[in-house]
Amino acid sequence: MGRFLGCLGRHAISQRGLSLIELLIIMAVLATLATIALLFFSDVSEQTKVARAIADLTTIGGEIDTFEYMNDRLPNDLAEIRRASFKDPWGNAYVYQSFAATPQGQWRKDHNLVPINSSFDLFSKGKDGQSQPPLTASASRDDIIRANDGNYIGLASRY
């Protein structure tokens, strides 16, 4: 029996620890996986914010259309439809511009510099919180816009 235990002891798994190289490799693999997970999560989070802004613009656009139908005019501002303090997913106020009260130079325009709507503009300034009238401007590429009088609502970069 002693002979058996002696044999077992010689073939048992070594009790040595991990080498420094092995620890560094494990840490590198874990760091890579954490980075991939973080990038995936931030992308999903941003897509969720864009989807929420699109839904908000659809709702606000419908409320503006209803106001126009009921009052034979567009609202002067979002306060008239009780949306003045309504914020986009990035914490910025939605922008509404009635063409009756806004100079033509401030209307949103496509790549041909043609206004993208016929009666009012409604948009979110997007993640960077900045915007310029032409959609081709770099500050406007992440804006969530209402275009073609509500037939398109989405990212300015995809319009």
How would you summarize what this structure contains?
The chain is built from 2 helices and 4 strands, in the order ααββββ. The protein has helices at 2-11, 20-71; strands at residues 95-98, 120-124, 144-147, 152-155.
Task: Provide a descriptive summary of the structure in words.
The structure is a single chain. By secondary structure, this protein is an alpha+beta fold. The protein contains two helices and four strands. It has helices at 2-11, 20-71; strands spanning 95-98, 120-124, 144-147, 152-155. It is elongated, with a radius of gyration of 29 Å.
List the helices and strands and how they pair.
Layout: H1 2-11, H2 20-71, E1 95-98, E2 120-124, E3 144-147, E4 152-155
Antiparallel strand pairs: 1-2, 2-3, 3-4
Q: Report the major sheet.
A: 4 strands, antiparallel
The residue fraction in helices comes out at: 25-40%
Number of strands: 4
> In total, how many domains does the architecture comprise?
1
Low-confidence stretches: none
**Oligomer status:** single chain
Helices and strands, in N-to-C order? HHEEEE
CATH topology grouping: Glycoprotein, Type 4 Pilin
- CATH class term: Alpha Beta
Structural class: alpha+beta
Summed over residues and divided by their number, the pLDDT gives a mean of 86
Question: What is the CATH architecture term?
Answer: 2-Layer Sandwich
Distance between the termini: 82 Å
Main β-sheet, spatial strand arrangement: 1-2-3-4
Give Rg in angstroms: 29 Å
Shape: elongated
Number of helices: 2
**DSSP strand (E) fraction?**
5-15%
